Amino acid sequence: MALTQLQVRNAKAGSHSDGNGLLLRVSASGAKSWILRVQVDGKRKDIGLGSLDHVSLAEARERARIERKAARDGIDLKVEAKKLKIASMTFKEAAESYLDHALSSLSNVKHQKQWRSTLKTYAYPTLGELVVGKVDAPDIAEALKPIWKTKSETARRVRQRIATILDHAQAKGWRDREAPERALSTLLKPIKQKAKGNFPAMPYKQVPAFVAAMRAAKTTVGRDALLFAILTAARSQEVRGARRGEFDLEAGVWIVAAERMKKRRLHRVPLSSAAKAIVEAAFKRIGSTDDALLFPGMKGKVMSDMTLGKVLKANGGEGFTVHGFRSSFRDWAAEEGYSRDWAESALAHVVKDQTEAAYRRTDFLEQRKAMMEAWATACEK
């Protein structure tokens, strides 16, 4: 017999049938919830219809009617609801999903706040309510154009963060493709930075496509030198002047003497698998003496910086600089949550604070090994 309102209110622990598979389940603690028992493909299936606190007897019967009909028609309403949610998932919802899970692992609270504030200020007004599966290059360009030239550094970071969220959405199944980086590059001209000391840097999300283009091109000494510079985040002059005797392949380390460094301090560079492979290939081309240049230029002399610039431009890097890849690496390290000290050490930057510098006795070589391997993996994505 069907349950009455009084029976529902006074129901004790156990299951109470309302007929047609609808049950009122009462736990030992007194909590009451609705369950519908149906047959799907010959197997019994229990479907939760909600708590009595939120679903009345009349509402439970209506929900049960809808579920029974769906079961007869072979429709899983939960699956259909999930599909509907995915189809309507907004960029803001996808972003908040990424922020809640990915950023919680970062110890740098300031970095977490920067992510949230930049998205709220520059991305959400244009992209927030768009379906994340349909966000494309023109939409992103529309969001970035107001700050692309006036706040170039912020614009570059926002662009990278948008791309990260779209890649996250793709991994979750909320969109069928990754961020449209190549298409976006045709809509936004490279940022020309005028301030002294700044170099137009390729957004790190674009680096994998650029590296892939170089890998697909004909192997040359210039190409290998640029690849090596990207993978090690080293300065152009350090790479172009590298000699065989500076490498300890057994230890996987490149040791650059102090006199060759900008700050006149010895610098150790851990070699990723990809960087080490380039060195091993170079060893087969050059002489066996320690003084042999790893990437010799014309007539065996030190390669010119112009050569690397030509390789960069020839492979789709027009508008950017070789030195800018150091900034690409630095942005990647920050976005991935690596220690600032490790990243600065990788770039051979000197600690400006004299007190801190006096007490620092490490270059974080061991920690940087894993970081540079991860950077190489990101570049070869």
What does this structure look like?
This protein is an alpha+beta fold. The chain has three domains: 83 residues, Integrase, DNA-binding domain (Double Stranded RNA Binding Domain, 2-Layer Sandwich), CATH 3.30.160; 99 residues, Orthogonal Bundle (DNA polymerase, domain 1), CATH 1.10.150; 173 residues, hpI Integrase, Chain A (Orthogonal Bundle). Helix content is 51%, strand content 10%. It contains 17 helices and seven strands. The strands form two sheets. It has a four-stranded antiparallel sheet, covered by helices on one side. The chain has a three-stranded antiparallel sheet with strand order 5-6-7. It starts with a helix and ends with a helix. About 3% of the residues have low confidence.
